[in-house]
Amino acid sequence: MIESLLVANRGEIARRIIRTAKRLGVRAVAVHSEADADLPFVVEADEAVCVGPANPAQSYRNVEAILAAAASTGAQAIHPGYGFLSENADFARTVQDRGLVWVGPGADAITAMGDKINARNLMAAAGVPVAPGTTEPATDLDAAVAAATEIGYPVMVKAAAGGGGMGMAVAADEAALRTEYDKVRAFAERMFGDGSVLIERYFPRVRHVEVQILGLADGRVVALGERECSVQRRNQKLVEESPSPAVSPELRARFLAAAVRAGEAVGYRNAGTVECLLDPATQEFFFLEMNTRLQVEHPVTELVYGVDLVEEQLRVAAGLPPTFDPAALAPRGHAIELRINAEDPKRFLPGPGVIGTWVEPTGEGVRVDSGYVAGNTVTPFYDSLLAKLVVTGADRAEAIERARTAVAGFAVAGPKNNLPFFAELLTNGEFVSGDYDTGIVGRMR
Length: 445
What we know:
Elements: E1 4-7, H1 11-23, E2 27-33, H2 40-44, E3 47-52, H3 63-73, E4 77-79, H4 89-97, E5 101-102, H5 107-114, H6 116-125, H7 141-151, E6 155-159, E7 168-171, H8 174-192, E8 197-201, E9 207-215, E10 221-233, E11 236-242, H9 249-265, E12 270-279, E13 284-291, H10 298-305, H11 309-317, E14 334-341, E15 353-354, E16 357-359, E17 366-370, E18 377-378, E19 385-393, H12 396-408, E20 411-413, H13 419-425, H14 429-433, H15 440-444
Parallel strand pairs: 1-2, 1-4, 2-3, 4-5
Antiparallel strand pairs: 6-7, 6-8, 9-10, 9-12, 10-11, 11-14, 12-13, 14-19, 15-18, 16-20, 17-19
Helix pairs in contact: 4-5, 7-8
């Protein structure tokens, strides 16, 4: 096993990785910005290094500062968490070139799946269903209009290098496309340094279902079930659950087989997620993208399958076999994750501030992965995620009931937070029935 691990991230995911590292006897090194010096992940690490000011470009995305921290602390490996440098192929390659262990997929796999158009083409060649769309970037507005005319409106206009729900817009007709194309392209150039645009068929009523995969050290790729991620705002997830209430055993078998093919097509190692769109009317699903990292929502899979995905990541990176028998994987019960964010519960606008009260719920089937405690300041420099409230039950009904109790028992004062939204969602008839889609939040507002 790896003996010392630098966690190149912050907040709840850094704290969560450190927790597993310490359980395994692995020395955990944290890096942090000046703004995060008093957060729990810094305090709980065995060693911590400040890598720069609040601006992520000068701290959490500062490759040389992070590598210098690894060298000065004698860290053997680097875990990037999610966001920041986690899907940066150049960083992954540099880490390995410096003689360190990279806890993630290889740089070639990150590169292959990082461009949505290239990823679509690879998946289609591997026999994974893809939605109708362009096989090359729409290099100008005329090309975008021609592609949309062939595909059929409505279409989704996407930044080919985007991720996390950013750089996307829906165009219902040519007039809308002419407006949105330039916006998406400009955003893509500003945010990702790549203005390539993909035009893809848009499905008005669709569910977002993804599959957790793990590429093992021996070359096998295994799938650890699916997660339902259809409760979203601005194309970004708020709630995830597993198993999906929309997926039958037959459909699950097809989902998992396609996800394994996707991983095998790029020689995938370590943890990753194959994201798909599911048409509930036809039971057809289409490849959306592949996240070449650990997902925010990984706890629901951990709880349903009884595995620690961070431990499995470390074992793969160290060349060790998994702790479980891939042939005997089977889900038990139901898990739901709620993303507790520092944001207005109506408009979902960020609301940072000093945390005056922070009381986490407890009880059977309740897990809280948090990044803060009372007295910490939620700054405007980073993602608004405060904590992940994850509940399990013998079935979905029990999980929902436990979630209601846990939300009521979660006390946060200071920054704005979306706990009131979850209290509303968990009594919403559409959500409770399990028959919902990505438009559910819009229908609630």
